[in-house]
Amino acid sequence: MTDTPTRSRLYPWPWAYPSILVTIAEDELRKAENERCQANYWLDASLEEEDDESDLSYSEDAPFEGLDMSSEGSASDESTSDHDSITDEDISKSELAFLRADAETGWPIEFSPSPSLKKLEEEENLTLQIAQLIAAEEAAAAAYNADEVVSLITQFYEVLITMGHWPEGSLRYPPHTNPPIDEELAVRLGYAPAAISLMQRLPYLTSNINDRDEYAILRRTQLADYTCEEHLREGRHPYPYYCIDGCPNIDPWLLPFTLPSRDGLNVLLDTRMGVVRAYYTPGWPPQGTVEWKRHGDPFGSDQEEDRATQTEYRRAPIVPTSRYFSDLVYAYRSLLRLPILDPYRNDPNEEPYPTPPAWEATLNRNEQQTLIALYRECGWPNEWRRAEFLAKWEVKKKKIEARRREAWEKDYKERHSNQISTQISSVQLE
Q1: Same domain, 238 and 322
Q2: CB under 8 Å to 369, separation ≥6 — which residues?
């Protein structure tokens, strides 16, 4: 995957996605491009072999038997000339009106539809999109394989340990016995059997690692650990739902992969449909997607908005679970997303929000580039020397932190000095 969406596209890949219909369309386009390149490769190779094996040698003096090159060239020149001579004056105004169609609606400029016709077209398009969404959901459910999901999540965790984000020995593998998962409590809390089965088969970080901010991979977000009773209970109503009065538990077949706080990321594993629903909190999931529109307008009344708020996860864009975690593994292995760094600056392709000061943005870019260069210097991924990397990064990190402190202190003094000057000026004016 070469496309790396930025925050401006509202879904910072690989942690969140657009509508599954957009994802499918992008995949089909990429597949067609790959097939075209592959076809051209074999065509080019075939032509090269023919040239190598040919007994004919080219000579400028050799005749071209049976070919009238002059007439062919003349015809081609005439055709090109005729084509180039066509101008707007040769096309009627009515034809131009249809050609210059509006890109958003597809309606010609001089023949814009009435509001009622436009609304009818939008409703027809939404009906078609919902049908496509249902087909995509059915395909995802049919392809869902819990064994594959467990394997990919395990691989994702192990990649982060290998890359030095977490210490070796930080992962606990099933079966979980110390501590165990309280299955009876999970049943009483209302988890569906598929969700309970999946939580029992997943690996989890040790609590001394999972509870520390310095080891976080997402801002204001903790990875769920269902051997912990607190997480087991919170998983039935993760943030923001436990903050909403009278809010029911989330759907029982959903198993949170993350447990966010404010401004964190909800990643919900849908064990019934075989998809992931990922979106930032608080606020709504991305609006305008077919996943959003299928549930209707939530802003018609306060009651409708309250009900929609309590079940906003149903409006979140979806992506097949195996695709989601495959992309996570790929993103980190390819250094498109960086471990080690603070979650606020671990994405080299993201446009930070809010935008940091210029000096801080420069330091962040330098830090990212330094880390990427060090990974490559230490042989990542095929000739990886983990111990060498960690030792060298510790030295570089201290220098980076020292420059960051120095830049912060300089910025603070300048802002403080400007503030004092402003206060003195205002006093003098009085």
Answers
A1: yes
A2: 348
**pLDDT beneath 70, residues of the chain:** 1-11, 41-112, 420-430
Taking Cα atoms as reference points, which of 202, 211, 221, 198 lies closest to residue 157?
A: 202
Give the separation between CA 153 and CA 255, rounded to whole angstroms: 14
- Crossing angle of helices 193-201 and 146-162, in 10° steps, is 30
Does 423 fall in a domain?
no
d(CA 108, CA 94): 10
Please tell me the predicted confidence (pLDDT) of residue 264. Answer: 93
Amino acid identity of residue 4, one-letter, is T
Q: Which residue has the tokens 């120095």?
A: 406
Task: Note the pLDDT of residue 356.
Answer: 87
What one-character DSSP code corresponds to residue 269? E
For residue 341, is it left (φ>0), alpha (ψ between -120 and 50) or beta? beta
Strand 265-270 versus strand 275-280 pairing type = antiparallel
Q: What is the pTM of this model?
A: 0.78
**Distance between CA 348 and CA 339 in Å, rounded?**
11
- Whether 236 and 271 have beta carbons less than 8 Å apart is answered as no
Domain membership of residue 251 as a residue range: 123-333
Q: Is residue 85 part of a domain?
A: no
CA distance linking residue 343 with residue 337, whole number of Å? 10
- Local structure of 351: helix, strand or coil: coil
Residue 350 in domain: no
**Which long-range CB contacts under 8 A does 27-30 form with residues at least 24 apart?**
30/1
pLDDT in tens, 54-75: 444 434 344 333 444 344 444 4
Which amino acid belongs to residue 387? A
The continuous run of DSSP H or E covering 336 comes out as none
> What pLDDT score was predicted for residue 112?
65
